[in-house]
Amino acid sequence: MSVPRLAVRLFALAVALVVMWQLISWTEPVAAFAVLERFTPNLVWRVNTARPLVALSFDDGPDPEYTPKVLAILARHAAHATFFVIGERAMRYPELIGRIGLKGTRSAITTS
């Protein structure tokens, strides 16, 4: 096989692998979770439940403009969420951390 022909085949293989990876990562097939769970037993990837359930999480807050709006929307729909907050921002906006806890949601510090 000539070098240009080999290069074309290798390029086609690379393109096919990228396309397959994109399809897997965009569609998140159930089979992928089984593989992930096997190789990462200390992580929770999914929870079996008979009820329809969505887990909401918000990162890098609290934000004085958006956190109250998000809390209002959650309260309006009787929904709960987890807020992963940055430690420095939590210290800067302790009243927002208090409001997060009062609304039945949870918070966790992600950095100091």
What would your notes on this structure say?
The structure is a single chain. With 112 residues, this protein is of the alpha/beta class. It folds into two domains: 3-39; 57-111, no CATH class. It is 54% helix and 14% strand. The chain has five helices and three strands, in the order ααβαβααβ. It has helices at 3-27, 30-39, 66-76, 87-92, 94-102, and strands at residues 57-61, 82-86, 106-111. The chain has a three-stranded parallel beta sheet. Helix 3 (66-76) links the parallel strand 1 (57-61) and strand 2. The radius of gyration is 22 Å and the shape is elongated. The model has no long low-confidence stretch (mean pLDDT 84).
Low-confidence stretches: none
Largest sheet, strands/sense/barrel: 3 strands, parallel
Please count the helical segments: 5
* Class of secondary structure makeup: alpha/beta
Sheet-strand content, in percent, reads 5-15%
Shape: elongated
Q: Mind telling me the C-alpha Rg?
A: 22 Å
Mean pLDDT across all residues, rounded? Answer: 84
